[in-house]
Amino acid sequence: MKRLSTLLFVLFAGIALAQFSPSNVECIAPASAGGGWDFTCRVPAAQVMPAIGVVDGSIQVTNMAGGGGGVAMANVITQRADDDNLIVAASVATATRLAQNAYAGFTADDIRWLGALGADFGVLAVGTDSPLQNLDDLVEAMRTSPDDLTFVGGSAVGGFDHIKPLLVAKAAGIENLTQFRYVSFDGGGPALIEIKSGRADVFTGDTSEVLGDLDAGLVRVIGVFSPEQVSRLGDAQTAREQGYDVVAGNWRGFYGPPNMSQEAYDFWVDAIQQVATSEEWITLRDENGLAPFESFGADFEAFAKDQIEIMVGISKELGIIE
Q: What is the pTM of this model?
């Protein structure tokens, strides 16, 4: 009888573990094509997950731009709260907007934090014909002619892309951080078009967003917010190398709907862990200039909430929120 009970327990345990099997999986990128959230859905999710066999079939990527990620979050929470086959790209920008209460009252407790699998260091880039050659040139322009500068990025006003050049200004001792013009676009791709067309002066975004245009010779990187140079960016100097103590890494990860079943939650946490340690992702991560960074499940939730608290402090210090 004891052996039979043990056998039955194993069988039931196996059934419980097999309860969730994903189908018609969708990854929402809360911005237009070409930005960091789009990359997160298309590469580690849609490309790597099927390749390493954690998901059968393809993963649909849906670009849902608007509100710096707010449109997507509202849709997930109010319309698809129990969708076990839905994951959403997340980053520091998500934490920043939550910190600033910019998502229609939604909080970190309204979603399920699944995991992160890379760090995308920030960059400032200009057009190839720009007179700005480095951060010293940019800081001088910020001091003497701030009205002549237009910054563009893929996050909302007050978001992480907006904050990056303000951190440089702060490090340079510039006091009025509210005087600089920042124009928000729904993703890094549309923002970079403004730089290439000459309609804006400085792109503020992340390494993975600029690589295509950098390789094509359409933009120049004048500052990287990494502790050390990123080899994928060639000889582009870090902010620290140029005398500005600013490091800004943008983790790349995923969240899920608030009422996702525990079985689905466990599945996606494990799936993201498998992607993070796979040779396929490590190769693609390095090719796209991302650094190693991993956090999953409950640890990731605690990390994200800590990030939100940090961004509350930074946003207050920079005058973005009171």
A: 0.84
Please write down the HEC assignment for all residues of 55-117.
CCCCCEEEECCCHHHHHHHHHHHHHCCCCCCEEEEEEHHHHHHHHCCCCCCCCHHHCEEEEEE
pLDDT tens readout for residues 148-177: 999 999 988 888 999 999 999 999 999 899
Using the predicted structure, report yes or no on whether residue 8 has a pLDDT greater than 60. Answer: no
Q: Indicate whether 202 belongs to any domain.
A: yes
Question: What is the 3-class SS of 143-211, one letter each residue?
Answer: HHCHHHCEEEECCCCCCHHHHHHHHHHHHCCCCCCCCCEEEECCCHHHHHHHHHCCCCCEEEEEHHHHH
Which of 148, 163, 123 minimizes the C-alpha distance to 200? 148
pLDDT of 11 higher than 70:
no
Q: 181-184 and 112-127: which strand pairing?
A: unpaired
276's tokens: 């993070």
Question: How many structural domains does the chain have?
Answer: 2
Final residue in a domain of this structure, among 233, 258, 278: 233
Q: Are 67 and 130 in a shared domain? A: no
Helix (H, G, I), strand (E, B) or coil at 240: coil
Same domain membership, residue 128 and residue 107: no
Range of the domain at 282: 24-119+250-317
Q: Which pLDDT belongs to residue 38?
A: 95
Instruction: Give the domain CATH number at 72.
Output: 3.40.190.150
Q: In this structure, are 211 and 141 located in the same domain?
A: yes
Residue 242 counted as domain residue: no
Q: Report how far residue 220's alpha carbon sits from residue 210's, in angstroms, rounded to the nearest whole number.
A: 9
Q: How far apart are CA 7 and CA 2, in angstroms?
A: 9
Structure-derived torsion over alpha carbons of residues 291, 309, 156, 295, reported in degrees to the nearest 10: 30
Is 49 a domain residue?
yes
- Per the CB < 8 A criterion, the answer to whether 237 and 223 are in contact is yes
